[in-house]
Amino acid sequence: MEDLSWERIGERVRASRAAAGLSQQALADAVGLERSMVSKLESGDRRIDAVELTRIARAVGVPVSHFPNPLPEVVSRRAAIAGSEEVGDSGAARSAYATEVRLSEWLRAVSAPGDEVRRLRARTPTDAEFRDAVGWKPQPDLSSVLVPPRYSSAVVAALGARAITPARAVETLRGQVSAEQLTGEAAE
């Protein structure tokens, strides 16, 4: 058990102030003290009277008994069970242990992949199966494209620079366009 001292009370005031989200100045304003007095109080250099302690408790939102009383030990539900009877021999403990074992076995079985899952993971789907799975449908306008767009742009640029003839451009574009379309002489 810890000894009660002004330093311990000051530490609890500091922790409570920080937990409440208050600065030393904000606490001093709420209590009616100067900031330096709050600082000295938190360091244990200044003693505090009951009225000031009550105002501080109200400002930080804790009961007055929070400051002088020692901090509680960690409370465990198992400690109450152990005090009443032997934990290992109780029916509740045996039931909890059996439930934990069944749950562990179930989780192990669920997390381990079955034979069908292993077989499906080992087989890579074909391109057609993959496209069907993602809902891919062939686009009719793309099925008629015989040359890539960059390639056709390069051919048209070469034709514009007079590096190739219109007949050669039609030939390299694999009939994608006609000579009339390239030269602008549409048949009327």
UniProtKB/TrEMBL annotation:
Database matches in Gene3D superfamilies: lambda repressor-like DNA-binding domains
Residue span(s) of domain HTH cro/C1-type: 13-67
GO cellular component terms, semicolon-separated: cytosol
Keywords assigned by UniProt, alphabetized: DNA-binding
SUPFAM superfamilies: lambda repressor-like DNA-binding domains
GO molecular function: DNA binding; DNA-binding transcription factor activity
Superkingdom per UniProt: Bacteria
Protein name in the entry: Transcriptional regulator with XRE-family HTH domain
Organism: Streptomonospora nanhaiensis
